[in-house]
Amino acid sequence: MFIFFLILTLKYIDFNLTVYISYKMNLDKLAIKYRSDKYGSHYYTPIYQKYMESKKNKKINLFEIGVGGLEPKIGYSGLKTGGESLRMWRDFFKQGMIVGLDIVKKDLDLGKRVKIFHGSQSDPVILKKIINKYKKFDFIIDDGSHNYKDVKFSFEYIFHTLKNGGYYFIEDTQSSYIREFGGDGANLFNQKTVINYFKKMIDKINHNEIENPFYKPTYFDKNITEIHFYHNLIVIKKDENLEKSNILVRNRRLVGGKNLVLIRTFIKNVKYFYLHYIAQFKSLFRNIFN
Known about the structure:
This protein has 290 residues and is α/β, with parallel strands linked by helices. The chain folds into two domains: 2-254, Vaccinia Virus protein VP39 (Rossmann fold); 257-290. The protein is 40% helix and 16% strand. The protein has ten helices and seven strands. The protein has a seven-stranded mixed sheet with strand order 3-2-1-4-5-7-6, sandwiched between helices.
């Protein structure tokens, strides 16, 4: 009988310990605990949980642009303010290395696994310093200026540092629609917004399906396999994009049949050439007058 009750007690303890650990590792709860705007002002943490859950007990590197710390009288300029989400990531990833970058100098002691750098997200010097030190990241989060030029620069400069299978997050994309933040709510086709910049990544995922033999795949074409658009949040997965087309061969539709193959191939190539350069001219024209 004693052994029976002992087993029940141990199972009860194990169950409650599992529940407690699960509670502690829940990003919603951690965001509330540390007053991060990633839950409440926004609802990013359930999305983050979805993509990060499988690695919460792993040794990971996470890089977040923007340390935060908004205060009524001083804005984001406080030396001792901010770090809410860095604390959240620190507690969620028990073995993770958490790296932050902020344009405002911060003096926060968040433990040995959290390192904060001072500098701009569009400064190649500080970005290179961080890359040289940490090499590769499992997750990168852009919660910085939300300005199109800064977001674009950071993405193009550091995306390659993501490990295969890693995720790049861009927060607060409502800046694309609000003039005060450099957006354009009047012209949704304005190409110089964060949203429209990343919409183009959809074509890159499908680069092997583009019927244009002049199309040259970029690094992003070859290394992005997923892009997800949420309310005010974009999620991009880095991995080798190797899937071939089941219709095209090297971005070309081959001529079928056996009759006049050489002539028909020549005509098709002339058509490809014509369509490609007409499209290039139209694109140049749009860029001049955009």
